[in-house]
Amino acid sequence: MKAINGEFSAIHCYAEIARNASNPLEKSQIQEIRKDEIRHFQEFSRIYFSLTGRQPTPQITEACPKTYKEGLRAAFKDEQETVDFYLDIADKTQDQYIKERFKRAASDEQNHAVWFLYFLSNNP
Description:
The protein has 124 residues and is mostly helical. Helix content is 80%, strand content 0%. The longest helix has 29 residues, at 24-52.
């Protein structure tokens, strides 16, 4: 549920960050990142259902900062922390499908962090 809630929160926050983007290129890339987060949310929800037999009830667990720059900073930090969290999950499971999904998500999150850091460096 922690991964599902994190993705759910990111989906909502990244929509807000994209709305506040300083230029069309950044807006477009943040929307692409958001699409990855939607895919992760859907994959993790399927995994949750397969393990529990229930649909998850996601909740926003992290508030989205109000300014663009603070949003970028929070997104960068969250993406970096999520990489380690997902790799830990991948290391602890014996299920190959779950292992692969979380490793792929960790790779995506690292890529997202690089983009957010790049945007931060362009928005001093």
